[in-house]
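2 proteins. here.
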Amino acid sequence: MKRKKLSTRRPKHTQDELRELIVSAATGLIEEGGLVTLSAREIARRIGYSAGTLYNVFKDRDEIVLSIESRLLDRLAEHLDTVSLVRDPRADVMALANAYLAFTHANPNLWKILFEHKLSDSAETPGWYQGKIDSLLLRLEGALKPLSDGEGVDLAAVRARVLWAGVHGITSLSVAGKLAMVTDEAAQHLVQNLVATYLDGIEDRGDDPREVSPPPKASRKRR
């Protein structure tokens, strides 16, 4: 009596399972070596499928990276939601800024892809992407709102974006290892200094970023 040969074929995964395998492998690659290490061939090798299988699940590499970015933004939102807010603008903004800095330092290579990854010319940024960014900024707007009472919600939104841009600049230099080119100060000290100085300006002068005049145009001289 002949024995039946045991099948050595890999059990098939569902589309959702494959998506999870691909995103998990791609995330691991980026964590290890940054966006430059991400390739369809290496993802496929890690999950035990052919490279062509990836494109039965995702349209292209951009879509894989966007899926990673979506999860990263969700993780940041969850991280910021753990911050205990005390309804004191200075304490709350400082706590959110410190939490943001800590998250980027804990996930340096993943965080870089949010700003290093450029979509192909034919691709459009999905609507959910800006929605997630706006949702994150709402936390900062809420913390700043007591300083904008009577001045309109719009002013709190503008201030939140100005402050976030400054904090992000410091974190970007820090994560890239370039902060030492500018200062010997630690990133956390710079963030605290920035937040304190900006809030001092709001409290002392009630500054309105919307009223900043554009720089004068340089006169053109004919040769």
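next one coming up
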Amino acid sequence: MVAHAADDSPYYWDVPVPSQAQVDIIARAGIEMVPAGPGKVTIAADEATARALQEQGLAPTKKAPVYKSAPHELRAPEAGKTYYGGYHTSPELLGHARDVATKYPGIARLHDIGKTWLAENGRGGYTMSVLCLTGVDPAQHRTDREKAAAKRTVKPAGCDLAPTKRKPRFLLTAQIHARELATGELAWRWMDYLAAGYGTDRTVTSVLDTTEVWIVPVTNPDGVDVVASGGNRPKMQRKNLNNSQTPASCSVVDSSGNGPGVDLNRNFPARWGGDSRNPCAQTFQGPRAGSEPETQAVKQLYEKLFTNQRPAGGGDVPDTATGIVIDLHSYGNYGIVPTGATPKNLTQLKALTRKIVPSGFVVGTDRETVGYSTTGTTIDQAHGALGLAAITIEIGPNNSSSCGGFMPRYSCVDSTFWPQLKKSFVTAAQLAGAPYKQTQTQPQPVS
């Protein structure tokens, strides 16, 4: 008899969770969950992980493969540039932001914001960057034709890496979880849409004349390198590559996503400490609050772009607060607001989020959307420390379609996700001047 090797490919599994006890078993294992209907969640895991859950009394049922395209269906990866049908590598995502700033110096500026864990430790890695886009000086360039010409020649009217009240700011961050492929691509398209459209597209021109738009196209470039190294079978790396806490048993990422690294979206100081302490787990929170250089880079970016709008002694963030932060993730089709918000602010943030996210997305706190508590996240930090209107958007459905899950077909970016999210990003930019005033029927105009 021929022995068959165990299947180590990742699959989506539906797991019945009739009570909180079953949810807690999955959470303690550090496995990310997505609701799949009443009393049921979906996880991404290999068969070994599914068996381990069975041994703890759970009953996972195989649903669909994680990979939406078989390798033979995809074009060959371009070395160092693309993988899995067209998704861009970290050097390409970072390089594209630099190219936009070079091509359109009148409306775009690129700033370095910190180093990744590998770079901090002299092991390669990357310098992280943020791209700012905003309009030219309207006193010098009044017509759209003048603006279209000036965007290639002059300096932008703004985009300084310091708090300002000159224009409200909208910050978009992407791919903090490396395996959430579509998020970096959406940041790429948002950059191109704004840069190409200024002076020729009325909506874009209005947005950049009234708002500063800031974009971090990839927050976890070290992790994306691991994902992309799988080529047309991307690896399931979620975390950064800090292996200083990693035991030998998980020195390489497995097909469930367990392995080395810290979950950057559980490592922020605000509300830190409620997630996994297992260094192998997908949701390992790190050895201490804010331990990771990538986390510090984003935290400090918030502090450089926005003033602290929280009242002394706590209480509600005032209605006059400005600025919006969106952190892109996948999947589930959710708009998630900070759990730590006051009741008044929570109502305001939900109203804002409903105006921003695509129709049909579920809006609420972490427990009201994904069904479990998360701590130490980007939106915990942005809202909890500075009072910012902060939202997590989870892109893509929880189903077996080609556009579902962590690794949708590349064609879904342009056929489905970008048409949905372009409107969301524009709306966020338009509302950045009055995010806490959106409980009214009509959006407040940006001044």
